[in-house]
Write a structure and sequence with these properties.
Rieske Iron-sulfur Protein; seven-stranded antiparallel sheet; 17 strands; 2 domains; 8 helices; 30% strand; disordered N terminus; binds FE2/S2 (inorganic) cluster; 336 residues; Naphthalene 1,2-dioxygenase Alpha Subunit, Chain A, domain 1; binds fe (ii) ion
Length: 336
C-alpha cells in the first residue's frame, strides 16, 4: 500500500490562536464569501450586516447600486448597524451618532465641537458582487472578479435554473471546530458509511467521487439503485458549497468565528410549485447530515486539542479533496 504523508498538517494548526489570526487574514480576508441571496438587498436602502471570519461588514443598496463597507465607524469604531438586516436612508453610528451617506461619505459629526475633514473619514469599502441571485463579499481589492473566482462552480451550475428558485429556509449553526476540520470533512465520502447511515442507504459511498478543478471540487455518487444523480454538488475553497438539483438548491457558506468555532449558514431555495413535503424532506435530511457531521467533527476537534495527535495519513482512494484543502491553506499561509 502506498501512502502520502507529506504536508499533512500538525494538530496545532487546528488549535493555535495565532494560526487562526493568520488564516483569517490570508484566506478569509482575500477570498469571496457567500453571505446569502441578492434579494435580501433588493429594495433601495435595504442592508445586510454580517460578521465574516471576525470581520464586521455591511452590504447596502444605495439607490440601486450595491455597496459594501466595514461596519466600523471612523470616529472610534462604533457599529453603524447591528448584525442582521434592515432598511435605512443613511448610516448613523450607534455610539455617538456620526452619520454617513449610503455611499460611505461622512455627512455629519454630531455635536463634535469641530468639523472633521469628511474626506478623510469615509467608511472603508469592501467588495460586493452578485452571481445568479447569490450575494458575495470580499475584503481584497486584488481578488479576481467573482465570476472568474467561481471558475468551475459557474460552469457546472449553468444548466440549473437557480434564479427561479425561491428561498424557503435559512439557518445558522455554530460548530465547536476549527474551520479546517469542517472543510476537510466536506471533501470526502470515506466517512459516509460510519457517520451518515441514512445517506449511506441512498448512495453507494464506495463509489463516491471527488474531482478537483482548480480551487473547486465536484462531488458525485451513484444511488444504490444504480441511478445517476441529477444534481451537482460543488465546493469552492475555502467555504462555499452549492448543492444543485433540477427543482431546488442548498447554498452552504461557512467561516471561522474563532480558533475552534465555525459558523455554517444554510440557504434553501426551491422551484415554484415544489410540493411542501419534498421541500421539508430535503431540508430535514440536510440538517440531519449536518448534525452527524457536527458530532464527528467536534469529537475530532477535542482530540486535536488533547495534545496527543500525531500527523495522520490520507487515503489515495478517497481523500484527494482533503489534500487540496491542506495544500490551498499551506499555499495561502506560505504567501501570507
Ligand atoms: S464611534 Fe461612531 S460616532 Fe463615535
Ligand atoms: Fe459528512
Amino acid at each position: 500500500m502506498t501512502t502520502e504523508t507529506t504536508g499533512v498538517p500538525a494538530a496545532r494548526t487546528y488549535v493555535d490562536p495565532d494560526r487562526y489570526e493568520v488564516e483569517r487574514r490570508v484566506v478569509f480576508a482575500r477570498e469571496w464569501t457567500a453571505v446569502g441571496v441578492a434579494s435580501a438587498v433588493a429594495p433601495p436602502g435595504s442592508y445586510v450586516s454580517v460578521w465574516v471570519a471576525g470581520y464586521p461588514l455591511v452590504v447596502v443598496n444605495d439607490a440601486g447600486t450595491l455597496r459594501a463597507f466595514q461596519n466600523v465607524c471612523r470616529h472610534r469604531a462604533g457599529p453603524l448597524v447591528d448584525e442582521g438586516s434592515g432598511t435605512c436612508g443613511r448610516f448613523v453610528c450607534r455610539y455617538h451618532g456620526w452619520a454617513y451617506a449610503l455611499d460611505g461619505r461622512l455627512t455629519s459629526a454630531r455635536d463634535f465641537g469641530a468639523e472633521p475633514d469628511a474626506a478623510s473619514f469615509s467608511l472603508v469599502a469592501a467588495r460586493v458582487a452578485t452571481w445568479r441571485g447569490l450575494l458575495f463579499v470580499s475584503l481584497d481589492p486584488a481578488e479576481p472578479d467573482l465570476e472568474a473566482w467561481l471558475g468551475a462552480v459557474a460552469r457546472h451550475s449553468a444548466s440549473f435554473p437557480m434564479e427561479t428558485y425561491a428561498v424557503t429556509h435559512r439557518s445558522s449553526h455554530d460548530l465547536a471546530v476549527n474551520w479546517k476540520v469542517y472543510a476537510e470533512n466536506y471533501q470526502e465520502g470515506y466517512h459516509i458509511p460510519l457517520v451518515h447511515p441514512g445517506l449511506n442507504r441512498q448512495i453507494d459511498a464506495s463509489r463516491y467521487e471527488v474531482v478537483i478543478d482548480g480551487a473547486v471540487t465536484v462531488h458525485a455518487a451513484p444511488t444504490r439503485d444504480g441511478a445517476v444523480t441529477d444534481g451537482a454538488w460543488l465546493w469552492h475553497f475555502p467555504g462555499l458549497a452549492l448543492n444543485l438539483y433540477p427543482t431546488g438548491m442548498c447554498l452552504e457558506s461557512y467561516w471561522p468565528t474563532g480558533p475552534a468555532s465555525t459558523r455554517v449558514e444554510y440557504t434553501f431555495a426551491f422551484a415554484p410549485g415544489t410540493p411542501d413535503d419534498e421541500v421539508d424532506g430535503a431540508v430535514a435530511s440536510s440538517l440531519a447530515i449536518l448534525d452527524e457531521d457536527r458530532a464527528i467533527c467536534e469529537a475530532v476537534q477535542r482530540n486535536l486539542e488533547s495534545g496527543l495527535v500525531r500527523p495522520g495519513v490520507l487515503s489515495p482512494r478517497h481523500e484527494a479533496g482533503v489534500a487540496l484543502v491542506q495544500r490551498l491553506v499551506a499555499d495561502a499561509v506560505g504567501h501570507g
